[in-house]
Fold this sequence. Notes:
The chain has 375 residues and is of the alpha/beta class. It folds into two domains: 2-272, TIM Barrel (Alpha-Beta Barrel); 279-372, no CATH class. 42% of the residues lie in helices and 19% in strands. It is built from 15 helices and 16 strands. Strands 4-5-6-10-11-12-13-14 form an eight-stranded parallel barrel, surrounded by four helices.
Amino acid sequence: MYQIQKKDGRAKRGRLQTVHGVIETPVFMNVGTAAAIKGAVATTDLQEIRTQVELSNTYHLHVRPGDQIVKKLGGLHKFMNWDKPILTDSGGFQVFSLAGLRKIKEEGVYFQSHIDGRKIFMGPEESMQIQSNLASTIAMAFDECPSSTLDRDYIGHSVDRTTRWLVRCQEEMKRLNARPDTINSHQMLFGINQGGVFEDIRIRHAKEISRLDLDGYAVGGLAVGESHEEMYRILDEVVPYLPEEKPTYLMGVGTPANILEAVERGVDFFDCVYPSRNGRHGHVYTNSGKKNLFNAKYELDDRPIEEGCRCPACRNYSRAYIRHLLKAKEMLGMRLCVLHNLYFYNTMMEEIRQAIEAGNYREYKKRKLDGMQGK
């Protein structure tokens, strides 16, 4: 059950009760595609850096090690040693990114594994069955994520098919949650709004899926090549047509600035690979902007990545040492940067929640953005 605790303009401070604990929103979900955060980050680290939700990928876990294996081992929570909420995305985005290896039909998608080339079929029922085997807290509906560059006619037909698939997902989840051998019989389902950059298609789709009374609603198909301005325009138009009393999730977004802007537009769930991917390349987030620790100016810098930061990297190591590790290709350097970045994101979300509660979110957003832009 989701409850709004406080509103500040359109920004929402919410609380989602789940079978694996409470999620305080707005929240950033830390992305562990194959049931682990890239960069040698363990679930014990996630506890230390105050991660609320871990996100794993349905397609990747279906291919390797196999969702049946995860089920036999007690589900993702037991497999990973993680007792807090997990969201699994449906596999749709990964399937549709395999453009040359797939064929879309009404029943689902036929495609080849990117690992060994074997033929795989995934439709709404298959995606729900895989996610039920994984036993995640929140399952995402199987949708088509079309490129934002496709024409209006294709996007319209694609959205209609996504709606039909969503109904099938809902029916299959109901069936699976009632089975006696289901690990998590309280699994939640979030639907996904699509429509490219066409506001009218987005709004029509939002109205259609809102009638299904799902556990939450996501805006998908953004941050895939369109400008930030276009993304904000779509959010301005579409979010008011999604149920305010349900969680709103902007998929695959994004930079700290993207998150700050989207919160102001009523979004309260986020995920992105940026903090871990950038960290693995020595790029770290701070309140005064992003820093590249490979730069020579940090060679003799004995300060932490950010003064006052309480992450495991900043509490114990200097920029100079971490730079040395990165240059020497020691995995510890990568790991420390990833931990710092995830801590920065998780802490920013705590600040966002506090600012909404205090009724000064707009001032907080401006101060945060000005700082990160060096103003």
